[in-house]
Amino acid sequence: MPESTAIAERSIAMQRSPEFQRLRRTFMSFILPMTVVFLAWYLAYVLIASYAPDFFATRLGESYVTVGLLFGLGQFVSTFAITMLYSRWANRVYDRAADPLAAEMERPVAGGEPDAR
User: How far apart are CA 41 and CA 53, in angstroms?
Assistant: First the structure.
């Protein structure tokens, strides 16, 4: 059997394994809620800007700072916060669960070295 066929079969077997399915569920259990929260926050920003521009134009005190400016800056802050949360989560949880699967996929195929492509 050609080496590429053996690697493809190992890949398919890995995708069907309970360990990989558990890893996929772990990933989705973090990513899906984060995506929903961020999209809801972004949609709220767009809708408020579209339908309540006077609210966004409200000045805070005697300064030039408006509610809209704070919401806009909040978009950047939330993006960085989600990125940091994901990075910490991936390092603590996801990578630890993925490492054994990666090691299994990187071990040499019977009769040769792993495909270097």
Answer: 17
Which sign, positive or negative, has the C-alpha torsion 102, 31, 93, 74? positive
Break the chain into its structural domains and give their ranges. 3-106
pLDDT tens column, 26-36: 999 999 999 99
Whole-prediction pTM value?
0.75
Instruction: Of 36, 31, 37, give the one whose Cα is nearest residue 93.
Output: 31
**Separation between Cα atoms, residue 16 and residue 33, nearest integer Å:** 25
Question: Which amino acid appears at position 39 of this protein?
Answer: L
Question: Left, alpha or beta for 18 (phi > 0: left; psi -120 to 50: alpha)?
Answer: alpha
d(CA 100, CA 84): 24
User: If DSSP codes are grouped into helix, strand and coil, which group holds residue 42?
Assistant: helix
Give helix 95-106 / helix 3-16 axis angle, nearest 10°: 150
Residues 106, 7: contact at Cβ < 8 Å? no
